[in-house]
Design a protein that fits this description.
Strand content: 35-45%
Order of helices and strands: EEHEEEEEHHEEE
Distance between the termini: 45 Å
Largest sheet: 8 strands, mixed
Radius of gyration: 31 Å
Number of helices: 3
Shape: elongated
Mean pLDDT: 88
Low-confidence stretches: none
């Protein structure tokens, strides 16, 4: 086992910022919300309010951040090994690689009628691990289909700056994504004797902001307010768990 702590070589690319263009008109979103508004206030699966009882309150657009990151971990190392070779029980000495080896008795049933010689050495191994992840703002992995494809804004940082205080809610720690992928792929083997080469490399990093419309409706009889969200790229309804 490796007796001294060695630092891992790291190569990490700079993180890009991408803001998706909003491809859905707000009017389309409002119409879609009107079609689904009654579902928000259904009770006991059969009681539905009348359409005129559910009124539009407001619509707001915000941005949902996602992180796309790809990386790999490579380790080239040696580990200790012992090879056991059966020899005739009458053999008193074996010469291998200019070394004199004395055969030993063994109690293993499979080696009955034999002695054994043990050769100590080192084996060289190369392991490579790769991963590509999509993370939400909490650092949890999400499926690729949750992040749509869309053209991006030409000046993303300027656009984010125009959001003012809202932009602070979208901030993600600079190395949060790197820490997540590092924890998944950087796993040193337990049997290391010595390391030839070790590298943790992040080859792709992007912070993607995708537009989301949040539409509020109110039940005028009860005063209850509920929200429904739509993807600003695909116009699909977003179902939150």
């Amino acid at each position: 086992m490796l007796t001294e702590t060695m630092s891992i070589n790291e190569e990490i690319v700079e993180r890009k910022t991408i803001v998706y263009k909003t491809l859905v008109d707000p009017t389309v979103v409002k119409v879609a919300g009107e079609k689904l508004k009654n579902e928000l206030f259904v009770r006991f699966r059969f009681w539905k309010p009348k359409p005129e009882e559910i009124q539009f309150v407001s619509m707001d657009k915000y941005y949902e951040p996602y992180i796309v990151i790809s990386g790999k971990y490579i380790i080239d190392y040696y580990r200790k090994c012992v090879y056991t070779i059966n020899v005739d029980e009458k053999v008193r000495e074996v010469i291998l690689l200019n070394q004199k080896l004395k055969p030993e008795q063994t109690k293993e049933a499979s080696a009955k009628g034999y002695k054994v010689i043990k050769l100590e050495g080192e084996e060289r191994l190369l392991y490579e691990y790769k991963a590509s992840l999509i993370l939400d703002k909490s650092g949890h992995e999400v499926p690729p289909e949750q992040l749509p494809s869309a053209p991006s804004e030409e000046h993303p940082k300027k656009m984010l700056a125009e959001l003012g205080e809202k932009a602070k809610e979208l901030e993600i720690a600079p190395d949060a994504d790197v820490d997540v992928i590092r924890s998944k792929i950087v796993k040193r083997p337990m049997d290391i004797k010595r390391i030839v080469h070790e590298l943790f490399e992040v080859t792709e990093r992007a912070l993607i902001y995708t537009p989301v419309y949040k539409v509020l409706f109110q039940n005028v009889k009860t005063g209850e307010v509920k929200a429904i969200e739509f993807d600003g790229v695909t116009s699909k309804r977003i179902q939150r768990r």
